[in-house]
Amino acid sequence: MIIRTATLEDAKSICDIYNHYVENTVVSFETTPVSISEMQQRISNILKEGLPYYVCELEGKIVGYCYLHNWINRSAYSRTKEVTIYLDKDCSGKGIGTILYQRLFDEAKTMDIHSVIANICVPNEGSVRLHEKFGMKQVSFFSEAGWKFGKWHDIGHWQVIIT
Fold first, then answer.
1. How many angstroms separate the CA atoms of 105 and 134, rounded?
2. Which has the closest alpha carbon to 80: 33, 139, 35?
């Protein structure tokens, strides 16, 4: 298993992982698959900000990725970041998310970051369990915040103070 910084060449593999969630689940509230060029732009934007974006390779195949990004684009929020993680649909529950997050949180602790927030569509026991493993606690709950697949879905925010 290799954890490394994402490159623009990883965009197709990242799209393959992410678009499964877009098209088949409420884990992402996007409703249209993301193109490779759009994903390349997203990766580029994160890396230009100097924020970590990691992929996990297993036997030469990208099986997961995670990154930090700006939570809200207002200067007072500059030391609060949002965390995002997605795993290949066949790779959850195998410890890959924990390994990716360990690398990401270790890096975040060396940066000028005070708080990390995760946005989770609930219920999602696996995601909640992963985030709480890293000290995150639920700090908000919003009923019927997103409309997808013909019904309303709730979300919660989990947060950890790292400095």
1. 8
2. 139
Closest by CA position to 43, among listed 27, 26, 62, 23 = 62
Extract the tokens encoding 45. 């934007």
> What is the pTM assigned to this prediction?
0.95
Q: Return the closest-CA partner of residue 70 out of 131, 112, 9, 24.
A: 112
Determine the residue type at 3.
I
Q: How far is CA 17 from CA 80, 91, 106, 146, in A?
A: 26, 10, 24, 21
Taking a C-beta distance cutoff of 8 angstroms, is the pair 113, 79 a contact?
yes
Is 110 buried (19+), middle (13-18) or exposed (0-12) by CB count in 10 A?
exposed
Bridge partners of residue 141, in order along the sequence: 156
Q: What is the H or E stretch that residue 50 is in?
A: none
Q: Which residue has the tokens 């207002």?
A: 74
pLDDT by position in tens, the chain (length 163) = 999 999 999 999 999 999 999 999 999 999 999 999 999 999 999 999 999 999 999 999 999 999 999 999 999 999 999 999 999 999 988 899 999 999 999 999 999 999 999 999 999 999 999 999 999 999 999 999 999 999 999 999 999 999 8
**Helices first, then strands: H and E counts in the chain:** 4, 7
